[in-house]
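2024-03-11 09:14:02 INFO queue: dequeued item Septin, len=383
2024-03-11 09:14:02 INFO validating residues
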Amino acid sequence: MSGLPVTDGIGIANLPNQKHKIVAKRGAHFTIMVVGESGLGKTTLINTLFSTELSPAKNYTRRHLKQLDKLTEVEIIKAELEEKQFKVKLTVIDTPGFGDYVNNRESWAPIVEFIDDQHEAYMRQEQQPQREAKSDLRVHACLYFIRPTGHTLKPLDIEIMKRLGTRVNLIPVVAKADTLTQHDLYTFKQRIRAVIAAQNIRIYTPPLEADDEQSADHARMLMDAIPFSIIGSTEDVKTEDGRVVKGREYLWGVAEVENEDHCDFRKLRSLLIRTHMLDLISTTEDNHYENYRQTQMETRKFGEPKVRKLDNPKFREEEEALRKKFTEQVKAEEARFRQWEQHLIAERDRLNKDLEMAHSAIKQLEAELDNLQVGYGRGTARR
Ligand SMILES: Nc1nc2c(ncn2[C@@H]2O[C@H](COP(=O)(O)OP(=O)(O)O)[C@@H](O)[C@H]2O)c(=O)[nH]1
Ligand SMILES: [Mg+2]
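2024-03-11 09:14:37 INFO prediction written
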C-alpha cells in the first residue's frame, strides 16, 4: 500500500543501536517550527499532530514565550514522548503568519532572527564553564506552509524560503490540500519542485544512503512526496463507509487527514517523529549550527555580541533596494491613474458636448413641434 513502515509509536527505539545509545543517554530534544502566511492552517496542523499520534504525550504545556517584536509573538508547546525508556522532549513553535506582501513584507524577519538567536544562545551556553542543563530551542525542522493557489510559489515565498533554507532543515508543505483536486495538486507540487530547484532553495532531503534497502526505498518515497500536502483537522467525522476519522466534511464526502490518497500528513508525521527525527537533529547540529558558529567566529571576536540582521549594512542595502522598487511601482501606478483620470475628464467633456448637442436638438424639435401645433390649432379653429 503506502510503503510506510507499519511500526506504531515513535519508533526511535528501533534506531540502529549506536545512534540510539547516544541519544538515549541524554534523551532527545526535538523542536519543530511552523512558518507561513496567516490562515494557512499552521495552528491546526500542530493540534492535529497532538490529537492523532501524539495524544498520549505527557506534560503537555502551552505558553506564549517570546514577544519577538510588537507584531510577532511565538507560542511554545512542549510535550514529552516516551517509548521503551526512550524519551523525546518535543517542542513545537507556532508563529503568527506574516501578512500580505505590501503591508507586511518585513514581518517574517523576526522569525529568521529567532532561528539565529537560538543558535546564538546555544553557542553562548557552550562557551560557559558550567555546561550542564543547556536550554536548547534550536529548530530541527521548519515547516513552511505554501498557499494552495494551484499556480506556483510567490516571490515572497522564494525570498523567505531562501533565507530559511540556509539556516534550518526546511520542509515545504502545501497547506489545505483538500481545496485542490488531485490533478491540480499534482501539477502544483511539480511546479513548486521546479522552482525550488531553479532558485537553488535549500530544503531538507532524507538521506538516500541507508543501512538497508527498505529504509532507502522509504527515503525515496518521502523525497518524491515533497512538498508534502497537508490536511489539518481535529474533528472526528464519519466517512461514507462508516469509519470515524480525523477529517473535513464536504458535500462530496470527507477529506481524511490520515488517508494517503488524500494527503501526505502521514508521511510528514512519520518523517518527523519516527524515521528521520535523529537525522533532523544531527544535520541541525552538524550543518546548520556548525555553519552559524563558524560564520560568527569569522566575523567577530570571542564574546562580542552578534550583529543583528536589521543593523547589518548588507541587509539594509537589500531593504533599501526593495523599498525603492516598491516606490517606483507606486509611482508607475500613480502615473497610470493620472492618465486614466485625464482620459476620464476628456471622456466627460465629450459626453457633455454630446449632451449639449442633444439638448439643442431637443430644443429644435420642441420648437418644430410648437410650430406644428400652432398650425394645427389654426386649422381646427377654422372649422
Ligand atoms: N480546508 C481546510 N481548511 C483548513 C485546514 N487547516 C486549517 N483550516 C482552516 O483554516 C483556518 C485557519 O487555520 P489556522 O490553523 O488558524 O491557520 P494559521 O493562521 O496558519 O495558524 C481555520 O478556519 C481552519 O479551520 C485544511 O487542511 N483544509
Ligand atoms: Mg495560527
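2024-03-11 09:14:37 INFO annotate: The longest helix spans residues 313-382.
2024-03-11 09:14:38 INFO item closed
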